[in-house]
Write a structure and sequence with these properties.
It is a multi-pass membrane protein. This protein is of the alpha+beta class. It has 2 domains: 251 residues, Beta Polymerase, domain 2, CATH 3.30.460; 65 residues, Methane Monooxygenase Hydroxylase, Chain G, domain 1, CATH 1.20.58. The protein is built from 10 helices and 7 strands.
Length: 321
């Protein structure tokens, strides 16, 4: 679905266009076209593939579901895949933004992505002195806005993890704690897989040889790269904290099991002592001095009760019971 198709010249908007009229605007010197699609159909993308001379492999990646983020250079254009995070309650959803960047065009295709990115276009049009740099600045504005979407998500994940760490020693439901920790680990891995490849991808856009499409805009992409590295650093810290919390939770489970085992051992020792006494006095020997003693039965009960009470007090003092 076409979101918008706008023609710019020297940083100012010239006209809104249709896909069919794009070729005639591209022929005019100084123009560049910014096309935005959402959940593009194959006929729409094939039209633009022909008009912008897009590489077949790059177009196929758009329709192949969620792809690994990357920056690829082709003969006529750059192809960038980014992922955008969004929260659904406590569920993390990742959408995909595909960006084709040529010398006089930018084509962005959002697939299963909730972020509208309309603010990026508004920001660019408020800065004609930057927009006059053409497609390079649009790529920077889009990638900067998408990478910045990760900061509140990472901060939210960090806050939730701190809250769980606070209550973990008071919440006795170890299984629930472990499920939440593994949920945090899954989310951090999803975010890491969306950001880690970009560190290498965007390092190609500044320093040394850079693609012709972004020549002169290297410093802006260095800024995006710095944000990516900062987010990766935060995620590494979160992952380390999660691993530590999992080990602590397992230790708490082991401690709880140890307390239960000590209680069982204490009561088991008391029962074993009683069993020993009853076993001895239950033997059917003819000549046993206690069998014909008038006070044998109450004495046996007294010995068993006294011995059991003595063990109970010792175990209680030791904290086993």
């Amino acid at each position: 679905m076409l979101v918008n198709c706008v023609v710019y010249n020297d940083g100012h908007k010239v006209a809104d266009s249709t896909l069919e009229d794009v070729p005639q605007y591209l022929l005019q010197a100084g123009n560049f076209v910014w096309v935005a699609l959402q959940d593009a159909t194959e006929p729409e993308l094939r039209i633009l593939q022909k008009q912008f001379n897009l590489h077949e492999l790059a177009v196929e990646d758009v329709f192949n579901g969620l792809q690994r983020p990357k920056v690829e250079e082709y003969d006529e254009h750059l192809f960038v895949i980014l992922q955008a995070p969004a929260y659904h309650g406590k569920d993390l959803h990742m959408g995909q933004i595909n960006i084709f960047v040529g010398s006089n065009f930018v084509l962005s295709v959002r697939q299963e992505c909730e972020q509208t990115l309309l603010g990026v276009r508004a920001r660019a049009e408020r800065e004609p002195h930057m927009l006059k740099y053409g497609s390079a600045y649009v790529l920077y504005a889009l990638s900067d806005a998408i990478v910045d979407l990760f900061f509140p998500v990472v901060d939210m994940l960090d806050d939730e993890l701190e809250q769980l760490e606070t209550v973990m020693f008071h919440n006795q439901d170890a299984r629930q704690n472990m499920e939440r920790l593994y949920d945090f680990k899954y989310k951090s891995n999803v975010l890491r897989h969306a950001l880690l490849p970009l560190a290498d991808g965007f390092s190609k856009l500044f320093g040394g040889r850079v693609p012709a499409q972004i020549d002169g805009a290297e410093n802006y992409f260095r800024d995006v790269h710095d944000h990516i590295m900062l987010l990766n650093s935060q995620l590494d810290t979160i992952r380390d904290t999660i691993s530590t919390a999992i080990q602590v939770n397992l230790s708490l489970i082991a401690i709880d099991h140890g307390e239960v085992n000590k209680k069982l051992a204490g009561w088991g020792a008391i029962l074993v002592l009683i069993t020993i006494f009853t076993g001895i006095w239950g033997m059917n020997f003819e000549y046993m001095p206690e069998l014909h003693w008038k006070f044998g039965y109450p004495m046996a009960l007294t010995v068993m009760a006294g011995s059991s009470y003595y063990l109970y007090r010792r175990f209680k003092k030791a904290g086993w019971i």
